[in-house]
Amino acid sequence: MSNQITNKPLPDSLPPKPVQPAHASRKILLPWPLLLVCILVGMCLGAASFTFHYAEGLSYLSDDPMACVNCHVMQQHYDGWQHASHGRIATCNDCHVPHDSLIHKYYVKSEHGYRHSKRFTFQNFHEPIQITPGSRAVVIDNCMRCHAEIGDDLSVHGRSQPGQKRMEITGADCLHCHSRVGHGPTR
Questions:
Q1: Could you give the number of structural domains in the chain?
Q2: What does each C-alpha distance from 148 to 48, 68, 154, 161, 162 come to in angstroms?
Q3: Domain span including residue 103
Q4: pTM exceeding 0.70
């Protein structure tokens, strides 16, 4: 390689200057739609973080029954639980979340937290609150898990022998007859 002005060869020790494209000196600006999307995503994440903090979201991942009364609609159920037969031996999680795996347990707790926060935020719930069919199935499974020691009195379907025929006809479950065991009398 030679110098274009003098046609003298350049020393081997100097590296050639890199050629920069003409647009390299310009500042990189985000297109406004992308900037708008980033701002909206940031606002949503900020609002979600604030709501999670304000609603004491981490408390719902604990085993403390007081987490369940963060919401006023749960107070009567908490009060009933304290006076019910299970109030001395079981927490909310013992009955209301699955115990087959840790992943399933925390998935259900997270799903409950999301569903409850959405319903309470938008005031879209029945009062007194009612258990969903999926949550009821979890409670029934937990009845069977905790009361497995009385297996001689239970049929293969988990129903007590004296009431089994009636339960088969009506489609009832444990909570049909034992509805006050977990929360005691409410309203």
A1: 1
A2: 41, 27, 8, 14, 17
A3: 62-183
A4: no
